[in-house]
Amino acid sequence: MTLKIAVCVKYVPDATGDRGFADDLTTDREAVDGLLSELDEYGVEQALRIAEEADDAEVTVITVGPDDAKDALRKALSMGADKAVHVNDEDIHGTDVIGTSAILAKALEKTGFDLVVCGMASTDGTMGVLPALLAERLNLPQVTLLSEVSVEDGVVKGRRDGDAASEQLEAPLPAVVSVTDQSGEARYPSFKGIMAAKKKPVEELDLDDLGIDADEVGLGGSWTLVESAAARPARTQGTIVTDEGDGGKQLAAFLSEQKFI
Amino acid sequence: MAEILVLVDHADGAVRKPALELLTLARRLGEPSAVVLGAGEAAASIAAKAGEYGAATVYVADGAEFAEQLVVPKVDALTQIAKDKGVAAVLVTSSGEGKEVAARVALRLGSGLITDAVELEAGENGPVATQSVFAASYQVKSSVSHGVPVITVKPNSAAPEAAPAAGAVEDVAVAFTGNAAKVVSRTARVSTGRPELTESAIVVSGGRGVGAAEGFEVVEKLADSLGAAVGASRAAVDAGWYPHSNQVGQTGKQVSPQLYIAAGISGAIQHRAGMQTSKTIVAVNKDPEAPIFDLVDYGVVGDLFEVLPQLTDEIGAR
After folding, report:
1. What is the ipTM of this complex?
2. What is the dihedral of CA A95, A97, A102, A103, to 10 degrees?
3. Residue ranges per domain, chain A?
4. Range A3-221 has CATH code 3.30.420.40
């Protein structure tokens, strides 16, 4: 039996760029180049490792996003995923996380899977709730925020390092997993991988294919409303001194003046 | 008055400080009530504390499920109470688990979700949340336009203020839905005796410039002299010098203390995303060109192994 692994990824504006908002208060995707969210590379990596350990496995990478989001899929394919699904529809623009989870859940059901793997959060919205929402919608166990993950005999196991404790988790497949940036360094695509990725299949789906009404998603279907977005005033640089033997004392004087000590 | 439901986070039988902040914020929106889940015998003292901070009612539910299953039992409980009581909003602490619980509750209630609020005010159409986004370069104000608002709030977003209320305990029998991951074992994190990173008023962090695990001793000594929490940059954590639980940055903890001291940290975007909203920022770095100096209120260009011990001694002498 082929172990079918689906990895959900997001195409995001480069976090090192000057990110901002478009006129309709959605994320500006024009001003800054996009790429595969760095945190999703960990999801792709763990999916590939699980696939390598399995007798027979297939890794499908899925995204919801505009035309350029194909770049994120190509990156994942060049890392070693087998095929890709791209949900793309003009009416998706402005969809919030609740709506995105509805679209992804339908796309996952259509594609078929034994295991869904996600990154811990996107680097743009940084909510970190999509995996939990998918588990809720698909009515599956959520095994999330894992810094270690493995699949054996139809059971997914992993370690979740929380604030107060570290927990060992397990759940039978099918299940929804998310992995953190502690789960293991993501591989770089090889030249061979990059060439092979060009020939791998990318299935295109729109909202009709998934049986979703346009008014359930998009800005209009969003259950949250962004009222304003304002650039934070840049911090003004304060005093900079060069240590000439009394740097610690000068710093102490500053902290004292500010009443910290 | 509108009932505002607050999920009270607790550990080792005690209320965690962010829950008191939530109760304080909830009073701006209506009348707070608290939800205490899986606290065992500590439930009574936790409920009393919630009452002290303004909870008129404290819903208490217990059961082995809360410890044995991940996230879902809390979702079951919170959804059930929110529906039965017809509350006006649900507030949860922004932690990894808190956000997951809130998200599933929102979906079950058919509600919009806002995460990581740093400020909360009453608006004409329900609560207005302020978020700090894109590595804290933007401030966004949002509201929920569908259903009962479910909002997670970051620790340190408000100073907890006591406002004694009835704190009447109401026991709740939760109908658990199951289908959760099983928690096979749990290892409590060993306490360092230092304040919790996200809750501390002062944070002292070390980065690549610390050079080795042993190098963190000077960072810890300074932190202890200030009663501060210790943080680390991703570079220091990836190098194995300090635990991941202390990582400050986009993929670690986001902190917003009164005072943040960065030692040997260059200030890459990954790090700035986790500390840029700190009230006062101080940096010590050998490299005068380090981007961290663009953010600071006070910076010292110098060797942290000289500057930090001298500062620690100065503090000790006061």
Report:
1. 0.95
2. 50
3. 3-221
4. no
3-state SS class at B296: coil
* Of residues B99, B135, B185, nearest to A129 (C-beta): B99
Q: Determine the pLDDT at residue A208.
A: 98
| Residue extents of the structural domains in chain B | 3-171, 202-316
In chain A, the largest separation of any two C-alpha atoms, in whole Å, equals 70
Residue of B nearest to A155 (CA): B181
Test mutation, A138, A144, A179, A181, chain B, max B CBs within 10 A = A181
End-to-end CA distance of chain A: 65
Interchain contact B45–A (C-beta under 8 A): no
| B189-199 core/surface letters (b: 16 or more CB in 10 A; e: else) | eeeeebbbbbe
Biggest CA pair distance of chain B: 61
Measured between alpha carbons, how far is residue B279 from residues B222, B243, B259 in Å? Answer: 19, 25, 6
Q: Is the CB of residue B35 less than 8 Å from the CB of residue B5?
A: yes
pTM score, whole prediction: 0.94
Q: A169 to chain B: which residues are within 8 Å by CB?
A: 70, 181-184
Q: Which two tokens stand for residue A137?
A: 């919608």
Each residue of A106-118: pLDDT tens digit? 999 999 999 999 9
Options 3.10.180.10, 3.40.50.1240, 1.10.101.10, 3.40.50.620; CATH for B3-171 is 3.40.50.620
Q: Supply the CATH classification number for the domain B202-316.
A: 3.40.50.1220
Question: Taking a contact as any Cβ pair under 8 Å apart, which residues of chain B between 186 and 245 contact chain A?
Answer: 186-189, 196, 202, 226, 244-245
Q: How many residues does chain B have?
A: 318
Give the pLDDT mean for B71-86. 98
DSSP class per residue in chain A? --EEEEEE--EEE-TTS---B-TTSSB--SSS-EEE-HHHHHHHHHHHHHHHHSSSEEEEEEEE--GGGHHHHHHHHHHT--EEEEE--GGGTT--HHHHHHHHHHHHHHH--SEEEEES--SSS----HHHHHHHHHT--EEEEEEEEEEETTEEEEEEE-SSEEEEEEEESSEEEEE-TTS-PPPPPPHHHHHHHTTS-EEEE-HHHHT--GGGSHHHH-SEEEEEEEEPPPPPP-EEEE-SS-HHHHHHHHHHHTT--
Q: How much of chain A, in percent, has pLDDT values that exceed 90?
A: 89
